[in-house]
Hints:
With 179 residues, this protein is α+β, with helices and mostly antiparallel strands. It is 36% helix and 30% strand. It has helices spanning 2-11, 14-20, 25-38, 76-94, 127-140, and strands at 48-52, 56-61, 100-111, 119-124, 143-154, 159-171. A six-stranded antiparallel sheet has the order 1-2-4-5-6-3. The protein is globular and about 50 Å long.
Amino acid sequence: MYKLKENLAHMFDPATLMVKARTSKKHLSLLNFGLARMIPFNKPHGFRITEIGDGSVKIYIPYKRTNFNHIKGIHACALATASEYSTGLVLLNKLDPKKYRIIMQKMEMEYHYQAKMHSEVNFALTDEWLLENVINPLATSEKTTVICEVKAHDSEGNHLTTGKIHWQIKAWDKVRTKA
Length: 179
């Protein structure tokens, strides 16, 4: 029985699922299912990871009533939430969550075009960017803040938003408040 629980825990581990979801539709579905339950705030939005890479993610935002604003466009807050979600997922995918704490410090959103259909948020970073902006600064400083620029487009390719999500990153052994 203990071995079964251990295997199930490993199978539903988000870090393991993120790696397997890069090449497996089944694991991508499991990842979406698990994240919808782990982050209940996002569940009503119906966000879905459609693609995940080593340093990238695409998040689908459905054009549905729960995401509408007063003029039946996708609400600004849904677009902002998907932007935060995408950048956080990539950072957690690239940084060991057992070693680093990431916390959103600030969010800036610029809205370019009304979202009147299914939309997608794309975010990617490189290993060089991570080294230059996170790993090297943390070697000499207690914490660092990075700005992740993320863009959303509708299904026709119209540029909807540009978000700048500011994340504070700190090694857990430097965190003074309790988790």
